[in-house]
Amino acid sequence: MATRKLIVEVCNAKNLMPKDGQGTASAYAIVDFDGQRRRTKTKFRDLNPAWDERLEFLVQDTESMATEILEINLYNDKKAGKRSTFLGKVKLAGSTFAKAGSKSLVYFPLEKRSVFSQIKGTASGCIGGEAAGDSEARGEKKEEKAEEKKEEKPNEEVKTEEKPNPPPEDKPQEAPPAAAPAEIVNPSLAHDEKSQQREKPVTGKQADLSVSELELRSLSSDRGRSTYDLVDRMPFLYVRVVKAKRASKDSTFPIHAKLVIGTHIIRTKSQSDKDWDQVFAFDKEGLNSTSLEVSVWSEEKKENDECVENCLGTVSFDLQEVPKRVPPDSPLAPQWYSLESEKSPGNDVMLAVWIGTQADEAFQEAWQSDSGGLIPETRAKVYLSPKLWYLRLTVIQTQDLQLASGTEPKVRSCSELFVKAQLGPQLFKTSRTTVGSSSSISANPTWNEDLVFVAAEPFEPFLVLTVEDVSSGQSVGHAKIHVPTIERRTDDLAEPKSRWFNLTGGETKPYAGRIHVSVCLEGGYHVLDEAAHVTSDVRAAAKQLAKAPIGLLEVGIRSATNLLPVKTKDGARGTTDAYVVAKYGPKWVRTRTILDRFNPRWNEQYTWDVYDPCTVLTIGVFDNGRYKKDEEGKPGKDIRIGKVRIRLSTLDTNRVYLNSYCLTVLLPGGAKKMGEIEITVRFSCSSWLTLIQSYGSPILPRMHYVRPLGPAQQDILRHTAMRIVTARLARSEPPLGQEVVQFMLDSDTHVWSVRRSKANWFRVVGCLSRAATLARWLDEIRTWAHPPTTVLLHVLLVAVVLCPHLILPTLFMYAFLIVALRFRYRLRVPHNMDPRLSYVDAVGPDELDEEFDGLPSTRPADTVRIRYDRLRALAGRAQTLLGDVAAQGERLEALFNWRDPRATGIFVVFCLFASLLFYAVPFKVFALVAGFYYLRHPRFRDDMPSVPVNFFRRLPSLSDQIL
Questions:
Q1: CA-CA distances (angstroms) from residue 236 to 38, 363, 380, 549, 595?
Q2: Using one digit for the tens of pLDDT, what is the confidence trace for 376-428?
Q3: How far is Cα 258 from Cα 949, in angstroms, rounded to an integer?
Q4: What is the pLDDT confidence band of residue 441, given thresholds at 50, 70 and 90?
Q5: How far are the Cα atoms of 733, 768, 777 from residue 773, in angstroms, in the given order?
Q6: Ranges assigned E (strand) in 424-541
Q7: Do 516 and 502 form a contact (C-beta atoms < 8 A)?
Q8: What does the alpha-carbon distance between residue 952 and residue 693 come to, in Å, rounded to a whole number?
Q9: Paired strand residues for 368
């Protein structure tokens, strides 16, 4: 009996957890089997390492092999003798090992070593067994084949190219049965396709051209979780036209290829000495023919510059016989096809034709039939917001200022100076200070003021400081600070170093004094670039403070239905060219534009790393107006169709949500329903403990609490960051329009709106209604509206007074039962934007017109006057309410300040008798008496206000002293 070997091929790992503190990992694998240990090489700084190493283990007893355990442990390699960090493990029983000749590539999810481990990712490998002499026999066969290849003829070499790697004739006799073991979870695709070809009988041609969903899923069902598992797979016909070969090599006229499928006629670029190498993707649902014709045409110019096209030949394909391909299959190799032509025979074209899905690698760069071809503005793109920093400039003082200009001395008693700092379009000024020649006024002005800017990478080249003289209206001098060389800090433990800079007054005044400043880039802050209530990222700017993600957000943008037309096509009928923009964190995604459809199907899937669960995903739908130019060559603007927001904290982990959301947009004429969008969302969490811990951690980084920014300053910086992000994304190619970015970031939430004010007021009323409901319930109890409930409350009052230590346990148990019972009635669909809560149904046209009016107003003076009067009326009500609230506090304060001597005297006497009473009477007796008095029967009550209420209302306030 020959000694057997266990062959373990450690192929690669994907999406590993970063453990080196710099966002990456240097992974290696250790494989243990039957007391034997093998180790792979280390792949430095790679979260998707590929080892492709073959490890061999001796099998001492083949019969007991099924009881052995193969364990693969992944570690992060740390240098300087430190202990390696655990990245995950895979345990396999010996019963799952493949037999000789049937090894397969299998993906295994990485397991945790303990419940507290933070692990994510997968590892792949091939596991199989072979006899000890197999490897030697395999080497001998390879040598024999190499010798035979040298003696083969050229025509035999062509045959070997057509059928690569033919199986040896004696292989089926030595191999085990073709059926794979039942324990193999994910057999290889090649093995599955071969087995299907053996079992599936040959059938006739089908008349139906449609590719079913089950047929597409069968090609990739055994490949683990696909990157397109949240959307439907859309069949596309792919045609890759590479190049053509002419029979006459002397012809130098440019040639092009033409593709004809029913009414679809597409042509490639005209090339004379270069290859086309173009890919065309046709939506299978839009095809109206069962055949594809590819023809090659030459373009010949006559003497009068007239271009004449001559057909070099045509090749036809039956679409029912086109092969199917789903990644990760290798791309289909193009082949030479002879062009059929009676006039010019002997021409060939190289191309490849296959049926795939939107997951094909060639789809993104292909000519797409549903998005207008190769129009850049209609392609799917991923954008990244610029990395933003806070730049803090501390202006300390100036010295040696030369206030006189030129050689003519100018005597001043005093001058007012201020420092102006400018970074790109941002400009901030310090306060004014006085400098003069008298002894009471300093000649070296001091400010010690902080100016905070928003800086975006790549940074503006210079920060310009200018000292201005208010008295003369001239600049004293300026200095430039190179922004990329500015010091960066992550906390407030060490103050940035201050520096002196020489001020330059121009060519005639090379030295105008010097300025003392301290400047640094604050990496401990998170730069807010969106509204605080819809923020999607709270990480600090510095990379050193970056934390590992706690989960993964996957979004499938499937389709939209019943979209309304937003523009006209050819001046006759309405149309919509819809696309979707999704934003989470710094990553923006944009789907391709589906032209001229009211029910577009995108079926695109995207992923984001999640660092905080209490964040919001924003999805907007727009009509594309930029791919068309007007008469002046300027692109149009995109029109908003609707927006959806999903808060991640409302989602269950590892659950797929498939829902349709209503698209409602607010227009000057009122709210309008534009259609519905179907979205699939899944929030996957790698560590449940880390997710729970995040609820107790601060929302923003530490610097926001140690050295906070003022509300007004933070609001200014947020709108500055919005403008920077909008400008940067508008400069991308293709650009993401300014109107799109502003709509996604809610840049107009700070603008006054009567509708929003009403909505916020009713939100406050809704919150206070709970307290009002409780007060109403207590009033019903004290008025004996439900006598059994009032009696039970008397019993509860006696129990609480006699056993006060049961108060808190009773309250928390009651809260636990109430909240636990409401779990059954929770909303199982993620919340969307609520038109009723937004108060868009009961808003007038004039209020909407005011909301859409910009700053400054462009409306007539009479309209502005009416709106101002209405605002004054609302402010008058708020003013009265604030006065009433202030009066209650002033009455209480007057009770202690003897403003009303008689009232305060009564209160003093009451306090004296109350102290003697409470000293003699136990507190439990007082609590029982007070409770029974409050719950007394209505026949013992009076309809008039009580004595304490009357006494408090008679106390004086300061309202009578207001002018």
A1: 46, 9, 16, 35, 17
A2: 889 999 999 999 999 999 999 999 888 754 444 444 457 889 999 999 999 99
A3: 92
A4: low
A5: 56, 9, 6
A6: 426-429, 433-436, 446-456, 462-469, 474-482, 488-489, 498-502, 514-522
A7: no
A8: 48
A9: 281, 373
Element housing 259 (H / E): strand 255-261
- Which residues, in sequence order, are bridge partners of residue 12? 50, 124
User: Torsions phi, psi of 108, nearest 5?
Assistant: -115, 135
Closest residue by Cα to residue 456 from 429, 479, 426 = 426
CA angle 949-952-955, nearest 5°? 150
433: tokens are: 């200070």
> Measuring CA to CA, which residue among 750, 727, 362, 841 is closest to residue 533?
750
Q: What is the identity of the amino acid at 23? A: G
Coil, strand or helix at 697: coil
Within 746-860, residue ranges assigned H as helices are 754-782, 787-802, 807-821, 835-838, 845-852
Q: pLDDT confidence of 153, banded at 50, 70, 90?
A: very low
Residue 440 in 3-state DSSP? coil
91 phi and psi angles, rounded to 5 deg: -115, 130
pLDDT value at residue 203: 35
Q: What is the CA radius of gyration of the chain?
A: 39
- Digit-coded pLDDT (tens) for 286-313: 888 888 999 998 887 766 667 788 888 8
* Separation CA 535–CA 529 (nearest Å): 8
Helices (H), 298-392: none
DSSP run (H or E) holding 912: helix 901-920
The alpha carbon torsion through 13, 17, 22, 24 (nearest 10 deg) reads 10
Q: How many helices (H) and strands (E) does the chain have?
A: 18, 38
Of 936, 756, 926, nearest to 840 (Cα)?
756
Relative to beta strand 348-356, strand 236-245 is antiparallel
What's the gap between Cα 630 and its chain centre?
33
Q: What count of residues does the chain have?
A: 963
Pairing state between β 488-489 and 514-522: parallel
CB-side neighbour CA atoms (13 Å) of 389: 24
